[in-house]
Prior knowledge:
93 residues; 3 strands; single chain; alpha+beta; three-stranded mixed β-sheet; globular
Amino acid sequence: MVSESAKILGRPTQRQFERWIAEAVEALPQHLRAKLSNVGFVLEEGSARGRLLGLYHGIPLPARGYYSGVLPDKITIFRRPIERQARSPEELP
């Protein structure tokens, strides 16, 4: 079911959300982007908690000792909660 805000705003495509994620990462200062090595971004429809906008899965930088041969950390972005909170199309990105 599409939320009321998504109906009003017109629901962006998955490709558009992925573009916004890439643009947001690119807009970060270089010293922060450098800390995103071995991190993947995943777009999902919603979270189990319903209000969660995103979630980090992985080993935090301070806890990394020997960090070789492990799967990438993951940041999941939850689309529906973001759509519900947006009050205008300009707020979505």
